[in-house]
Amino acid sequence: QVQLVESGGGLVQSGGSLRLSCAASGSIFSINVMGWYRQAPGKQRELVARITSGGTTNFADSVKGRFTISRDNAKNAVYLQMNSLKPEDTAVYYCNAGIGVGIYEYSYWGQGTQVTVSS
User: Are 16 and 117 in contact (CB under 8 A)?
Assistant: First the structure.
């Protein structure tokens, strides 16, 4: 059984910062891409940022220059540092990881953590 557990969400004023953390646990053989997605009310879930096992990163245009993503492979963890937050960043943020279990790879999701940015 593999689980992704997120932490670090909350309420912050516009211009503030938050750091999200996500740790994977369970029967993990390997972890490929790890990333963060978000879903605002009435909108589709969208990619925020992702990072490969080798450290290659991709960001949504809306967060470039404000958010950074990093991972600690030894801890099976991924982090999202969010700076200069805007009200439009308000959403539920989900951690995602492509995890090898035996000879197969599966996509796992965390339970989500609320980020609210007040104006």
Answer: yes
User: Tokens 């220059």 belong to which residue?
Assistant: 65
Half-sphere exposure of 27 (CA within 13 A, CB side): 7
- Give the H or E element holding residue 30: strand 30-39
Distance (Å, whole) CA 24 – CA 2 = 7
User: For residues 38 and 63, what is the distance between their CA atoms, to the nearest angstrom?
Assistant: 12
In degrees rounded to 5, what are phi and psi of residue 61? -55, -35
Burial group, residue 64, by CB count within 10 angstroms (0-12, 13-18, 19+): exposed
Render pLDDT for 12-63 as a digit per residue (tens, 0 to 9): 999 999 999 999 998 888 899 999 999 999 999 999 999 999 999 999 999 9
φ, ψ at 43 (rounded to 5°): -120, 160
Alpha carbon distance 93, 6 (integer Å): 9
CA distance 85 to 90: 9
Secondary structure (3-state) at 29: coil
